[in-house]
DNA sequence: GACCCGATAAACAAAT
DNA sequence: TATTTGTTTATCGGGT
C-alpha cells in the first residue's frame, strides 16, 4: 500500500487525495487504474449482505447528498465558507477520514456529522455525487455478478447432489473461502496500517467514537469479469494458502468479500507485466503477504539473508527471523513512516523518470522513423529557437522545424513557464548532443525532452549537461532576445542554467572562449559598445571548425547590412558595421569570377543571412578550392574579400582559409585594408611568410 | 589502429 | 598593472 501511495503522491497536498484513493472511494470514485488492477475479490462470495451494504451505502450517500446540497445552499446564501475552504489538505481530511473509517456503512447520521463540520467544498460534494453514481453502477454490476455466482453455486450443488458427496469439492470450496478470508484479513491489516500511517502523518482525522474500520467500500468500476479473474487467482492459490492455516474463519465472508475488493483495488498497482502464470505481482500487499507464505524468501524486503528495508540491511538468518525483525524494527512508527515516505518519493521519482525516458524513447523512435522515411533533406534552415518564451525566435521559427520536434507529448509534462532564459522544450531541441559524431555535420535535433525535462535538474544538480560547449553557447545566444551575447553574458547563461558550470570557472570559461574562437558558427561582432557574439546556425549545423593556423577574421562592410537585412539576429551587427558589404561583394564576385564560381549576388541568394551568405560562399568555394593550390592564398592578406575589409568586427571570415586559398587571394589583394589586423594571422603562416 | 572530434590546458596577445 | 577577452596550439580521451 505504501507503494501505491508512493506512486501517486505528488506532493503533500496530493497526498491527501492519494490517501483517499488508497483507502477510500468516497472522494476518489475514479480509481480505474487501480480498480482494474487485480483485485482479489472472489466474486463468487458476493452475498446478499453485500448488496444490502451497497444499498445502505447508497442510501447514505443520497442522504448525504441532500444534506450537502442543503448545506451548500446555506453557504451560498450566507456566504459562509468553510474555514478550511482554501486549505485543500484539511478540507479533504475529514471526509477522507470519515469515509475511510466508515467506508462501507456510512450512515446518514455520519454523513450529517460530516456536513456539520462544514469542511466540504463543492468539489468534494461533486466527488461525493460521483461516488454515489459509481456505487450505483457498482451495485448493478454486483447484482448481476451475484446472480451469476449464485447460479453457478446452485449448479455446483446440484452436481454434487447428483454425483453424490464429493468431499474434495466441498473441501475445495471451503478452502477457497478460507483462503479468501485470509486474504481479506491481510488486506484489512494492511489497510489498517495504512490508515494508522495516514493518521500519523496528519493526513487523516478520525472522529472519536467512530469505528476505525479498515474495510473498504466496493471496488468501483470493477466488472464481473475482473472479479471472476480475481477469484480465479484466489482459488488458484488456495491450495497453498490452506496449508498455512489461519484463524480467520470467523470472518464474515459474505460481508467482507465485497468490501475487501476496495483494498485490493487501491493497494494494487496495475502492472500487466508483473503477473506471471496467473500470479499477481509481489508488489501488491496482498500478494506480498501471500508470497510470504508461498515463497518465504521472495519477500521484497528480504533477500540474501538481509533485510532490504531502506537503510537497514540487517542480517536475518532465515525468513522467520526476518519477520521478527520486520515486526520489531520496522513497526509502524514515525521512523518507519518517514522511511516509507522517502521510499515513496524515490519510487515516484523513478517512475517519473521512467515515464520521461519512455516518452523520450518514443519520441526518438518516432523521430527516427519519420526521418528514415523522409527524403533526406538539407539541414533545416535556421531551425532556431521556437520557444514560446522567445517571441522573436518564435516568430522566426521555421515551420519546417516543427517536425523535428517529435516529442511534443513531453511538453505538457514539463511545461515551461519561466523566463526567457529558460531552456524550453522547443528552444533546446536543436542543441547538439555532446560528443556525438552525428552532431558533427548535422546537429540533429535531439529530443525536445532532453533538456526541457531536465532543465531544473541541470539547474540544481552539478551534472554535466550532455551537450557540447558549442551547442550550449549557441543556445545561449539564440535564447537572447537579440540573438547575441557578450562573452560575459554567455558565462552568466552557463552559470544560470547549469549548476555544473558554477565551479571550475576557469576551465569551462576557457573552453567557451576556445569554442567561440574555434567554431565557424560563432561570429564575433563589435560595435561601439564592445563586442558580442552571434551564431550562424547553418554553420553550426555543419559543425565545422576554423582551420588552425589560418586567418580567421574578416572585416564587415558598410553595406553588409543589406546582405543580412533579413537576419534579425544581426540587426545590431549591421548597425555597427561599416564599409563591409560593397567591397565584400565586389571582391567576392571578382574572386568567384576568377575561379569560375557561380556568382552569388544578394538577389540570387534570396534572403541571405550573414551565415547563409557566408555558408553559401563557403560551400561554393569549398568545391572550387579543392582543386586549387593553397600555397599562395594565406600569404595574401586580401585573399579573402571579407578579410580585406576590416574595421573591427566580425571574427569570422566567411571563407574558409583553405577555401580562400588559391587564385582568389590574388584578386582580393587590392582590398586589403591597412588596418587589417590579420597580419598577425598571416605572420603565423609558414606558407604565408614566403609571400609576405 | 587510424582518424575525427570535443574537451581541456596552456601560452600568448590585445583590449579594457 | 591586473583582468578580461580572444586566438592558437597541443594533448588526451572517446567514438567511429
From TrEMBL:
Regions of biased composition (Polar residues) lie at 1-19, 267-282, 389-402, 627-638
Mark out the compositionally biased spans (Low complexity): 403-417
A GO cellular component entry from the record = nucleus
Which residue intervals are annotated with compositional bias (Acidic residues) in the record? Answer: 682-692
Q: Which UniProt keywords apply?
A: DNA-binding, Metal-binding, Nucleus, Repressor, Transcription, Transcription regulation, Zinc, Zinc-finger
GO BP terms: namely: DNA damage response; endothelial cell activation; macrophage activation; monocyte activation; negative regulation of androgen receptor signaling pathway; negative regulation of B cell apoptotic process; negative regulation of gene expression; osteoclast development
**Could you tell me which Gene3D superfamilies the record lists for this protein?**
1.20.5.340, Winged helix-like DNA-binding domain superfamily/Winged helix DNA-binding domain
List GO molecular-function terms, semicolon-separated: core promoter sequence-specific DNA binding; DNA-binding transcription repressor activity, RNA polymerase II-specific; identical protein binding; nuclear androgen receptor binding; RNA polymerase II cis-regulatory region sequence-specific DNA binding; zinc ion binding
Q: Which SUPFAM superfamilies match?
A: Winged helix' DNA-binding domain
Where is the major localization of this protein? Answer: nucleus
Q: Does the keyword Cytoplasm apply?
A: no
Q: What is this protein called?
A: Forkhead box P1
The species this protein was found in: Sus scrofa
> Which gene holds the coding sequence for this protein?
FOXP1
Amino acid at each position: 500500500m505504501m507503494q501505491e501511495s508512493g506512486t501517486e503522491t505528488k506532493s503533500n497536498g496530493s497526498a491527501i487525495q492519494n490517501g483517499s484513493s488508497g483507502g477510500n472511494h468516497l472522494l476518489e470514485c475514479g480509481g480505474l487504474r487501480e480498480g482494474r488492477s487485480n483485485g482479489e475479490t472472489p466474486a463468487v462470495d458476493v452475498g446478499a449482505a453485500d448488496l444490502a451494504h451497497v444499498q445502505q451505502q447508497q442510501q447514505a450517500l443520497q442522504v448525504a447528498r441532500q444534506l450537502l446540497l442543503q448545506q451548500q445552499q446555506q453557504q451560498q446564501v450566507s456566504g459562509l465558507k468553510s474555514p478550511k475552504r482554501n486549505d485543500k489538505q484539511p478540507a479533504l481530511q475529514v471526509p477522507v477520514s470519515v469515509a475511510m473509517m466508515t467506508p462501507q456503512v456510512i450512515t446518514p447520521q455520519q454523513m450529517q456529522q460530516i456536513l456539520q463540520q462544514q469542511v466540504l467544498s463543492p468539489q468534494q460534494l461533486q466527488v461525493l455525487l460521483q461516488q454515489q453514481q459509481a456505487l450505483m453502477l457498482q451495485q448493478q454490476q454486483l447484482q448481476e455478478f451475484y446472480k451469476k455466482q449464485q447460479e453457478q453455486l446452485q449448479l455446483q450443488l446440484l452436481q454434487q447432489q447428483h454425483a453424490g458427496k464429493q468431499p474434495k469439492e466441498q473441501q475445495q470450496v471451503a478452502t477457497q473461502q478460507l483462503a479468501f478470508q485470509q486474504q481479506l484479513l491481510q488486506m484489512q491489516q494492511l489497510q489498517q496500517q495504512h490508515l494508522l500511517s495516514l493518521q500519523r502523518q496528519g493526513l487523516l482525522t478520525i472522529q472519536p467514537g467512530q469505528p476505525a474500520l479498515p474495510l473498504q467500500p466496493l471496488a468501483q468500476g470493477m466488472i464481473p469479469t475482473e472479479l471472476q479473474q480475481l477469484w480465479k487467482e484466489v482459488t488458484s492459490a488456495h491450495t497453498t494458502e490452506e496449508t498455512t492455516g489461519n484463524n480467520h474463519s470467523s470472518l464474515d465472508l459474505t460481508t467482507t468479500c465485497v468490501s475487501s475488493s476496495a483494498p485490493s483495488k487501491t493497494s494494487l498497482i496495475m502492472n500487466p507485466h508483473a503477473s506471471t502464470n496467473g500470479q499477481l505481482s509481489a508488489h501488491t500487499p496482498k500478494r506480498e503477504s501471500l508470497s510470504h507464505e508461498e515463497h518465504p524468501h521472495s519477500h521484497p524486503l528480504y533477500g540474501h539473508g538481509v533485510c532490504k528495508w531502506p537503510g537497514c540491511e540487517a542480517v536475518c538468518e532465515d525468513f522467520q527471523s526476518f519477520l521478527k525483525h520486520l515486526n520489531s524494527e520496522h513497526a509502524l512508527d514515525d521512523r518507519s513512516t518517514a522511511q516509507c515516505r522517502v521510499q515513496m518519493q524515490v519510487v515516484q521519482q523513478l517512475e517519473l523518470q521512467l515515464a520521461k525516458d519512455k516518452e523520450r524513447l518514443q519520441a526518438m523512435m518516432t523521430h527516427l522513423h519519420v526521418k528514415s522515411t523522409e527524403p533526406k533533406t538539407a539541414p533545416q534552415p535556421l531551425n532556431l529557437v521556437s520557444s514560446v518564451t522567445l517571441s522573436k525566435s518564435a516568430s522566426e521559427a521555421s515551420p519546417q522545424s516543427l517536425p523535428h520536434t517529435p516529442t511534443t507529448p513531453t511538453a505538457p509534462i514539463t511545461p515551461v513557464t519561466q523566463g526567457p532564459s529558460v531552456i524550453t522544450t522547443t528552444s533546446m531541441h536543436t542543441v547538439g548532443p555532446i560528443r556525438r559524431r552525428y552532431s558533427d555535420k548535422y546537429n540533429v535535433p535531439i529530443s525536445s525532452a532532453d533538456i526541457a525535462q531536465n532543465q531544473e535538474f541541470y539547474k540544481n544538480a552539478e551534472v554535466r549537461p550532455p551537450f557540447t560547449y558549442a551547442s550550449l553557447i549557441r543556445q545561449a545566444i539564440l535564447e537572447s532576445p537579440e540573438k547575441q551575447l557578450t562573452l560575459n553574458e554567455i558565462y552568466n547563461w552557463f552559470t544560470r542554467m547549469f549548476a555544473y558550470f558554477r565551479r571550475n570557472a576557469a576551465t569551462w570559461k576557457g573552453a567557451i572562449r576556445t569554442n567561440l574562437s574555434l567554431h565557424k558558427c560563432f561570429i564575433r561582432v563589435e560595435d561601439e559598445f564592445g563586442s558580442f557574439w552571434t551564431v550562424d546556425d547553418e554553420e553550426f549545423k555543419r559543425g565545422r571548425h576554423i582551420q588552425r593556423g589560418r586567418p580567421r577574421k574578416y572585416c564587415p562592410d558598410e553595406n553588409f547590412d543589406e546582405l543580412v537585412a533579413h537576419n534579425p539576429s544581426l540587426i545590431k551587427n549591421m548597425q555597427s558595421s561599416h564599409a563591409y558589404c560593397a567591397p565584400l561583394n565586389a571582391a567576392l564576385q571578382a574572386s568567384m569570377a576568377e575561379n569560375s564560381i557561380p556568382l552569388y549576388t544578394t538577389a540570387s541568394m534570396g534572403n541571405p543571412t550573414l551565415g547563409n551568405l557566408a555558408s553559401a560562399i563557403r560551400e561554393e568555394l569549398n568545391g572550387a578550392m579543392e582543386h586549387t593550390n593553397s600555397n599562395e592564398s594565406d600569404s595574401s592578406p586580401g585573399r579573402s574579400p571579407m578579410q580585406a575589409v576590416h574595421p573591427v568586427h566580425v571574427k569570422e571570415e566567411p571563407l574558409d582559409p583553405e577555401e580562400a586559398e588559391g587564385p582568389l587571394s590574388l584578386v582580393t589583394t587590392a582590398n586589403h585594408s591597412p588596418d587589417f589586423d590579420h597580419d598577425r594571422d598571416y605572420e603565423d603562416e609558414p606558407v604565408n611568410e614566403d609571400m609576405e
